[in-house]
Structure formats: C-alpha cells, structure tokens
Amino acid sequence: MNILLAMVATFFWGTTYAVTQYTLEGWPPLLLGAIRALPAGLILLAIKPSLPKGYDWVVLLRLGAINIALFFGLLFIMAQTLPAAISAMGMIYVPVFAMFFHWLVLRKAPSKLQLFSALLLMVLAWQLFDPQKVPLNGVGLVAMITAIGCIIIGSNLTQSLSNRIDWWTVLTWQLILGGALLTILASLQATAYPEQYVNSLTNLNMLNITGLLWLLSLNTAIAYGLYVWLLRRMTVVEFTFAGVTNPIAGVLSGLVLMGESFNAEQYTLMAAIILTSLISPLVGNYQKNRTNKKANKAVNTPTPSLAD
Question: At a CB cut-off of 8 Å and minimum separation 6, what does 161 contact?
C-alpha cells in the first residue's frame, strides 16, 4: 500500500512540467514557487494548527530552504527550459543519486543488483540526453542535477525529523518557511526586474488560475502530504524507486498538453529507463517475501520431540 501511495505522489509531481508550460508560460520561477508553497502551507495550518518548538524552528527553516525554496525554484527553471518528458525522465535518477549518497556519506553500501541497475541507468541516460539527438538547455540540465541533490538531502532531513517532530508540523512548516523565503526572493527580483512579474499578474486568466490550483492542491498539499507521511514508513531509497510514475506522467502530460513527440529510439530508451529502475525494487521485494515465507515455514514446522 505504501508503494502505491508513493506512486500517486510522484505521478502528480511528474505533471508539474507540462502543466507549468501549458498554463503558466513565462511566469517567473520564484513567483511560481512562492505561490505553490506558501498558500498550501497556510491551508494545512488552518486545517490542523501546529507550532514548532525551540530549536525545531532552525531545523525546519533549513529544511524549508532546501526542500522547498531551492527545490521549487529549480523545478520551475526546469519546467521552462526543458521538454516536460525530459524533465520527468531526469527525476527517475533520484534513486541512483540517493544510493551513492547513502554509500559515500552514510556508509551504507548498495547491493550488487542496485549497482548494476545504477550503471545501466547511467548508460541509458547518456544515450537519451545526448545533445546531438535532443537539443537541451544547459541551464535546465544544471537545475535538474541540483534539484536531485535537494530531493536527497531534503528527504533524509525530513526522515530524521519524523522521529521527534509530528509529521504534520514538518509538512506544514517546511512549506510555510520555504514559501516565505521564496516570497522574499521573488519580491527582491520583482523590484529589480518588474516587467515579467507585472506582465504575469496583470494578464492573469482562468488558464493560469487552473494551473496554479493544480500545482497548489494536487502537486503540493496532497502529494507533499503523502511524501512526508510515507517517509516515516519507508526508506528514502524505497520511496525514490516509486518515482517510476514521475516520467510516465511527464511523458503523457507532455504529449497531451504540449504535443511533445520523440522518435522510436527515444521512446525505447525512455521505456528501458523505466523498466531498469524497477529491477532492484522488484527483485528486492521478491527476495524479501521469499525469506519471510521460509522464516514463517520454519516457525510453523513442529520440532520432533525426544519421545518421537
């Protein structure tokens, strides 16, 4: 059940790129991040009021800066500079980066199967993101790699907080504090470069409002709620492997909303990347279930007595 809920969250996240391009073209990334985060946090606070204590403010501010302010800003840069399908496909590499982070920083060595999957994903990525085949924006690619780093660091920090801070408080206040930081940065940028902000807000229409509501409700309040709640029940690596639905949503929404299309080789590479990302969790679950069955069988097998 947990893996299915994680897939729901990552599916909504995968629609971010196409929805932004289709409904909010030309909007400043900092403004979009602020509108996505701060109202969602305030709505959640109104539903269930909570207040951090003491040093928790500092930790939640740090989390909001990484997981919300920096990540949302980078996400909307990706949405405006890369094809929706490519942005979503890039996010499937989060488990690979998470695996190496756990290996190098936390000293948790990956299994041979995880290493094999990671190496195969890198080879496939080299083929898919080849600039000779798909023209890609360098700024968007840097934003993608940095955003992946934010996800991993932010997820580990979120998981570490779940043991001592209520998950709702972590969810609500990272959105509020991160959204407040984005609001400050957006205000400073609007003061220096007002044209894009004035143009976006003065030409606000129903299509823009629909896109903003989608990002605020489904992509943030609901998807981030599932994300924070599930990180108390799953490891970061387990959750990130559920991100297979992210590229599926990205490809589908890019096709439907933006009319994005790729050649047969590129679609084959995308399918291979998705299938490769499933190898490790599927085999791992199979081995885990097999071990549990053997353990249960051993427990239920009666031990012969001396009298027998």
Answer: 59, 60, 63, 170
159 and 204 Cβ atoms separated by less than 8 Å: no
Residue 218 vs residues 193, 222, 281: alpha-carbon distances, Å: 30, 5, 26
* pTM score of the predicted model: 0.81
User: 60 to each of 113, 176, 237, 284, how far by Cα in Å?
Assistant: 35, 10, 22, 33
For residue 2, the 8-state DSSP code is H
The sign of the CA dihedral 128, 134, 138, 143 is negative
Q: Which two tokens stand for residue 268?
A: 């084959």
Q: Which secondary-structure segment (H or E) carries 25?
A: none
Q: What is the pLDDT of residues 138-181, one digit of tens each?
A: 898 899 989 988 988 888 888 888 778 899 999 999 999 999 99
Instruction: Please give the span between the terminal C-alpha atoms of the chain, in angstroms, as a whole number.
Output: 45
Alpha helices by DSSP H, 92-222: 94-104, 112-128, 138-161, 167-192, 194-202, 206-216
- Give residues with Cβ within 8 angstroms of 92, minimum separation 6: 121, 243, 244, 246, 247, 273, 274, 277
Inter-residue contact 69 to 175 (CB < 8 Å): no
